[in-house]
Amino acid sequence: MATIKDVAKAAGVSTATVSRVIHNDSSVKPATYKSVLDVINKLNYTPNVLARQLRTQKTKTVIVIVPNIRNTFFSDIIFGIENCARKHNYQILIADMHGQPDIEDYYYQAIQERMIDGIISLSANVAKSLIEQISDQYPVVVACQYLENYNIPNVTIDNNKAATAMTEYLMKLNHNDIVFISGPVEMTLYRDRMNGFLSATASAGIPLDLEYVRYGDASVQSGYVQMKEFLDSRKPFSAVFAAGDMMAIGALRALQEAGLEIPKDCSVAGFDDIELSQFVDPPLTTVHQPCYQIGETAFKKLLKLMNKQQIEAFHNVLDFSIVTRDSSAKKGE
Amino acid sequence: MATIKDVAKAAGVSTATVSRVIHNDSSVKPATYKSVLDVINKLNYTPNVLARQLRTQKTKTVIVIVPNIRNTFFSDIIFGIENCARKHNYQILIADMHGQPDIEDYYYQAIQERMIDGIISLSANVAKSLIEQISDQYPVVVACQYLENYNIPNVTIDNNKAATAMTEYLMKLNHNDIVFISGPVEMTLYRDRMNGFLSATASAGIPLDLEYVRYGDASVQSGYVQMKEFLDSRKPFSAVFAAGDMMAIGALRALQEAGLEIPKDCSVAGFDDIELSQFVDPPLTTVHQPCYQIGETAFKKLLKLMNKQQIEAFHNVLDFSIVTRDSSAKKGE
DNA sequence: TTGTACGCGTTATCAG
DNA sequence: CTGATAACGCGTACAA
Description:
2 copies of one chain form a homodimer.
Chain A: H1 4-11, H2 15-22, H3 30-43, H4 49-56, E1 61-66, H5 72-87, E2 91-96, H6 103-113, E3 118-121, H7 128-134, E4 140-143, E5 154-157, H8 159-172, E6 178-182, H9 188-203, E7 213-215, H10 220-233, E8 239-242, H11 245-257, E9 267-269, E10 286-288, H12 291-306, E11 315-318, E12 321-323
Parallel strand pairs in A: 1-2, 1-3, 3-4, 4-5, 5-11, 6-7, 6-8, 8-9
Antiparallel strand pairs in A: 10-12
The structure holds a DNA duplex.
């Protein structure tokens, strides 16, 4: 591998000049500029990033903490982050938590050792203690949810409002006995969705029965189990609203296994609009989140933070939309 | 951030001694060892990885090239790689190709600049030209498939044999008109599966009708479209074998949209056994691959390569299994 | 058992 | 417009 010294020697200039050429320093005389560039190409020289990083104390690397890459919802956001990062010559390091909190420590170490320029967390809670420890050392942006009691910039949709909207939609279809299946309520995101559901039903005068409000982790498996458990209670219901599509798909499966026809016997709604939602049978009514845009916005925000620029808004709230598909229908139709 | 110098000064020793303590050099006198360690803890000192890397010319970082993280099949393998890597103090960098070949160049650059210790590719083909260029510079392991004409160590199941087994299973259920839906045939993995299918049907004396053999990309969408196209041909069929679960799910959707009941009117089989397969309706019969083990094996292999150790086998072939679920049944039942 | 001193490949400052 | 040269933080011969 050719180094800057090799280039300097071959071009008959100093390393300083080569460095200037690399950085497009306009003070270099066009003639020398060209000759240096020729040598660079001839030797196929690429600057050693490690050395550069050591010198500049910048890594151009951002770590993205994600609860679980196996949920395509997160991969979609990562896609947005990554594309945007690449445009700005940043690299992203994906820290998958797998829902195993002990992995936090490992990444905390990694962050300490590896000089990371910034952090985007898609999971204020899985990595909560980690985030807390580092939010004063590093630029941090939280996406999809927010962390209570910490002033960390974030990018989300209005989960409360979205859940309210979906609940209202279901109620408009004459569903009054709606089962709400939630993810971990320690996460503000799920709490907001639950609150949205609760306030919507309350406003409609539907009395609260906690048997109808369930929660577990956010997996397909969890949705399946939660639904089964509710079915065991033998309470009447005509609709299920799961706070995540993965859970909704699990619930769908449990309902179908129990012999229910969707949407004839029961309407089902999800949240997130992951790719798969349109391919399950029946296609899932859900809340669409602008994943790519969330990722993009989060990175841009982080970029400003890293460059010590002023951020225009502390909290970006992006638009959601209700996507109606065949899994929901008017009650009794 | 404290540096090695700070520690040395505070402990009243040289930086060399501190370095020795960090590396557990047994030549350090226990007393000094302890006092240095105390200072390290007191100052909360962590070695600067950048400097260390620059010095040792090793990054302890492995890049994992993945066609598309949105397919949980890949995330499962990544999980295996990552867990194993972490145990050996390696970091992984995920290079998601998104099926966009132009992204290759970007990562090629990244590999050049960033001194990566090794590469695991889950996609010999999406990143084909990249792999070719670097397989002589860096330790490379290919998982899930192999690259023709290149002697690159790999870890796979026997795709051909697995597809044969699944086809035989379907034929045993009296299905003779089987639609085969494949991913990109440039990929050896899909070609092997297709060959397995073709040889199984040929052995059974089923005449070849190319109308029954289709291919596209490996997405849900693609499976959906391919199935639709076949349905338009109005040829008789009683089973569909898709060379990937995502495609199988797309096909399932298309069949159900066309009013077919699964498995009564048509059996459907997939390949990979992604988490979701058991949660679609009906649950999918499929070929199970030991994803975690594939990832683990691939990393261990790469580790040996990076350490210039002898690898015991050039090609690891792991076991698959046929998982039968409700999407398949005896013809006419 | 410990310290000295050089080099890894850059960038940035300062002088010319 | 260009060149010396000093860092960046660490590891490691070599010397003591």
